[in-house]
Design a protein that fits this description.
With 371 residues, the chain is an alpha+beta fold. It has two domains: 125 residues, no CATH class; 233 residues, no CATH class. Helix content is 37%, strand content 20%. It has eleven helices and ten strands. The strands form two sheets. A five-stranded antiparallel β-sheet has the order 1-10-9-2-3, with helices on one face. A five-stranded antiparallel β-sheet has the order 7-4-6-5-8, with helices on both faces. Strand 2 and strand 3 form a beta hairpin. Helix 1 crosses helix 10, helix 4 packs across helix 8 and helix 4 runs parallel beside helix 10. It is globular, with a radius of gyration of 24 Å.
Length: 371
């Protein structure tokens, strides 16, 4: 039985020095609570600006409600600290908005855990895995929604093709949309895509031809039997994947397709494929408020009520058998099994978000003892 000690072990109010949140993962890396909440506030500011735009008939109230939800998201965090040094999030409030940086991060963590469980079961059955990236050409905001619709329908078409259906037993699919916020070509951009710029006679400092363009694509994990790599009638070559995807997309150009075997499937493999849909830096452009407003409007509309991840075949069957969430939400518990702690003594710490410090500050700490 657990008993709460009403006497606070730390009278935080009497202390002049602020105690900021330090929450590290199992690798000793600081979790980005403050950074994500800061971006959450920036997104809230963008929604508030949109709510005040008189030209957006019928939408101001919609954006205002989103801003209100973001405001209350993760305003406080309550942790349980155990004697062995383990710290677990105990209470928090999440807004669940698709673009919220905090909720996006928490959802991504949960997807990784769930995908890892599915992969573990399939490894026991002898399955091997491939990492497949399916892309299309960059598009502007006007064409983004239709392009994403086409990506989903094309994905379904490709997996109904006989060679693909015969070779692939299951898949996990995640949509990612990147957005180019650089008006001019930087040194890093040129170094990363030198051939692309050289063929177009472009150099560092020139106008970026992809500025404000969107690049929707799929990250896919494929489950195959070991025989896939040995039998010619099963193995699909790189150029064949490209042909299948081009056929399904119904485009005249050759889309970029990348496929490779995953060796560290439970490590880098899961991390690579289980990405969240949009990176916050791609739609929160601090130096360009007008661009931020335009991109947030676009992505909010395009991603509204879309299923951003999905399982198929044997991976879907395992996911269902493990009773994992179909609709992944930002939760306090990322891994339910990880939260099965015995009733032991611990300290409950509550941190409140401090707008001025741009950080979480310790509000109270109480010791809870076990009989």
């Amino acid at each position: 039985m657990i008993k709460s000690n009403d006497k606070s072990i730390k009278n935080v109010k009497k202390k002049q020095e602020k105690v900021f949140l330090s929450d590290k993962d199992t690798n000793g890396k600081e979790r980005p609570w403050a950074a994500k909440k800061t971006m959450n506030e920036a997104l809230r500011g963008t929604y508030l600006s949109l709510a005040m735009d008189e030209n957006l008939l019928g939408l101001p109230d919609y954006y205002l409600k989103r801003a209100e939800r973001l405001n209350f998201c993760s305003r406080y965090l309550e942790f349980k600290n155990f004697e062995d040094g383990t710290r677990k999030l105990n209470r928090a409030c999440f807004c669940q908005l698709t673009l919220c940086p905090i909720c996006s991060w928490r959802k991504e963590l949960k997807v990784r855990v769930q995908l890892g469980k599915v992969v573990t079961e399939l490894i026991k059955q002898g399955y091997r895995f491939l990492f497949l990236t399916l892309t299309c050409e960059n598009v502007g905001k006007v064409d983004l929604s239709d392009t994403v619709d086409n990506l989903y329908s094309s994905f379904d078409k490709m997996f109904k093709l006989r060679p693909v259906g015969k070779a692939i037993d299951g898949h996990f699919r995640a949509l990612e949309i990147t957005h180019d916020t650089k008006r001019k070509i930087t040194k890093a951009m040129y170094k990363r895509s030198k051939e692309y710029y050289d063929t177009r006679n472009l150099k560092v400092g020139d106008v970026n031809p992809n500025f404000n363009m969107y690049h929707p694509h799929f990250h896919v994990m494929l489950a195959v039997k070991p025989s896939y790599f040995k039998e010619k009638d099963l193995y699909i070559k790189q150029e064949e994947w490209t042909s299948h995807w081009q056929q399904s997309l119904q485009v005249s150009y050759k889309p970029i397709v990348d496929v490779r075997a995953i060796r560290d499937v439970k490590g880098k493999g899961v991390l690579e494929v289980a990405k969240y849909t949009v990176k916050d830096k791609d739609y929160i452009v601090k130096e360009d408020r007008q661009l931020s407003e335009e991109v947030v409007m676009t992505l909010d509309d395009v991603l509204y009520r879309r299923r951003l991840i999905g399982y198929g075949g044997i991976m879907r069957k395992i996911h269902k058998a493990l009773n994992l969430d179909e609709d992944v939400k930002a939760d306090v518990n990322i891994d339910e099994e990880d939260e099965e702690y015995k009733e032991v003594s611990h300290i409950i710490e509550r941190y409140n978000w401090h707008v001025g410090f741009k950080n979480y500050v310790l509000k109270s700490a109480k010791k809870v003892t076990a009989d």
